[in-house]
């Protein structure tokens, strides 16, 4: 583990008050990525709007970190297929903060105020909203991503930033050397000062000064002094050869002129192993959901000291009906959200979003079921993700024969089947069997 750098506080002084610590900081949350690697789940929705853990969306994790850290002024930059994301933020998050105190969680779609283009990179997305950022007159700007699963107190990062006298602080995570091709690698001195960057190298000789078997990698979380960020964005916008990316361009270009420090990730998840997940692929997304449904999850959704918030929908409680031999409504090692009815069916190792109905004699194992899904009688579902509004006819079998599944569904190389509502049979919705006349 990394020792504290010079001047770094040993602990976060909660007695000083979270609002006081973060009151001069503006959060800018990047939520406009197309999420190609999560296709087909991102065909009709933005990646941060993809459901997670039953009742949540991926973006809820980062927004909960903001609220729990006392960061109550947040701009969310959206772009692709943002309708459901915009609605989720408007209905679930706009009232969480105290607007009368100047707090807000606000969506900023591309307005082409300073450019005629869509966002061309992470830095360009922030640059195109430079007037909105400047109008708030923050002392610091915290750049965040809306598509990672982790728990982090940004207030601790800000305290180190101020104590070290840094112009820029970036959050780092220690990874194995064989993982570097997926990350931006950071060259960090023993003092904590950043000496260089290598973006997604095939390999690297760099090692963490605090753990010589590990490498320091960027988490894509950047804390800037505003008077450093805005000029850097303007210079980058004028460079026709730039990729307009923080990791590729902004940070390397200011390295020689400003004081940049690394902040080693402090996990608020309170587990032995640090938890940070990029759920950017279907298999990674699936594994993260299976974890939260397990008996002893690594990522704890039930930690009252670090609550995960979301938009609350008005559904009745979940219900389990029938207890006959071979027809018992049950769920084991599973998350079952509000509005679900498990009618004489067996659920194992699965995650169900709101308003899911699983009818008699069906078996669902190791699967993720999004909202408003109706699974008919005598279905067998295994290792599948069922997208919202899907209606599976009686006797449907998914996840047992990959070749058969590929005829109608999307199947990953690992054999995970993703079912969307394109399938022609879904035009014939299945009547639920929990009504008295169906018995």
UniProtKB/TrEMBL annotation:
It comes from Acidobacterium capsulatum (strain ATCC 51196 / DSM 11244 / BCRC 80197 / JCM 7670 / NBRC 15755 / NCIMB 13165 / 161). It is an enzyme of class 2 (transferase). Residues 27-293 form the Nucleotidyl transferase domain. Keywords: ATP-binding, Carbohydrate metabolism, Glycogen biosynthesis, Glycogen metabolism, Nucleotide-binding, Nucleotidyltransferase, Transferase. GO terms for biological process: glycogen biosynthetic process. The record marks 79, 118 as: Could play a key role in the communication between the regulatory and the substrate sites. Pathway: Glycan biosynthesis; glycogen biosynthesis. Belongs to the bacterial/plant glucose-1-phosphate adenylyltransferase family. It comes from the Bacteria. Alpha-D-glucose 1-phosphate binds at residues 119, 184, 199-200, 218. InterPro entries: ADP-Glc_PPase, ADP_Glu_pyroP_CS, GlgC_bac, GlmU/GlgC-like_hexapep, NTP_transferase_dom, Nucleotide-diphossugar_trans, Trimer_LpxA-like_sf. This is Glucose-1-phosphate adenylyltransferase. Its EC number is 2.7.7.27. Pfam families: Hexapep_GlmU, NTP_transferase. Residues 316-419 form the Glucose-1-phosphate adenylyltransferase/Bifunctional protein GlmU-like C-terminal hexapeptide domain.
């Amino acid at each position: 583990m990394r020792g504290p750098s010079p001047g770094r506080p040993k602990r976060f002084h909660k007695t000083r008050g979270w609002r006081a610590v973060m009151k001069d900081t503006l959060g800018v949350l990047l939520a406009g990525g197309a999420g190609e690697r999560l296709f087909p789940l991102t065909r009709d929705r933005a990646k941060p709007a993809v459901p997670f853990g039953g009742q949540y969306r991926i973006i809820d994790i980062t927004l909960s970190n903001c609220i729990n850290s006392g960061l109550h002024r947040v701009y969310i930059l959206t772009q692709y297929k943002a309708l459901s994301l915009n609605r989720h933020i408007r209905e679930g998050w706009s009232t969480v903060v105290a607007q009368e105190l100047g707090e807000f969680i606000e969506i900023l779609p591309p307005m082409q105020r300073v450019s005629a283009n869509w966002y061309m990179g992470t830095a360009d997305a922030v640059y195109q909203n430079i007037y909105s950022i400047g109008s708030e007159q923050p002392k610091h700007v915290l750049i965040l991503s809306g598509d990672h699963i982790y728990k982090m107190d940004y207030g601790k990062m800000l305290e180190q930033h101020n104590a070290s006298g840094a112009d820029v602080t970036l959050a780092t995570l220690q990874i194995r050397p064989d993982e570097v091709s997926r990350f931006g690698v950071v060259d960090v001195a023993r003092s904590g000062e950043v000496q260089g960057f290598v973006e997604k190298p095939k390999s690297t000789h760099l090692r963490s000064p605090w753990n010589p078997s590990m490498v320091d990698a960027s988490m894509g979380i950047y804390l800037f002094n505003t008077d450093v960020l805005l000029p850097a964005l303007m210079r980058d916008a004028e460079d026709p050869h730039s990729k307009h990316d923080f990791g590729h361009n902004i940070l390397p270009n200011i390295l020689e002129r400003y004081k940049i420090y690394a902040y080693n990730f402090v996990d608020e998840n309170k587990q032995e192993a640090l938890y940070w997940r990029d759920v950017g692929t279907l298999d990674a997304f699936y594994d993260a959901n299976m974890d939260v449904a397990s008996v002893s999850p690594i990522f704890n959704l039930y930690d009252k000291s670090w609550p995960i918030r979301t938009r609350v929908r008005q559904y009745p409680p979940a219900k389990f009906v029938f207890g006959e031999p071979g027809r018992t409504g049950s769920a084991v090692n599973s998350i079952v959200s509000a509005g679900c009815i498990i009618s004489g069916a067996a659920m194992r190792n699965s995650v169900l979003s709101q308003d899911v109905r699983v009818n008699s004699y069906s078996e669902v194992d190791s699967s993720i079921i999004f909202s408003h899904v109706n699974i008919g009688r005598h279905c067998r579902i295994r290792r599948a993700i069922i997208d919202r509004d899907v209606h599976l006819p009686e006797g449907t079998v998914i996840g047992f024969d990959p070749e058969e599944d590929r005829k109608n569904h999307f199947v990953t190389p690992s054999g995970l089947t993703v079912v969307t509502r394109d399938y022609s049979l879904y035009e014939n919705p299945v009547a639920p069997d929990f009504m008295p006349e169906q018995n």
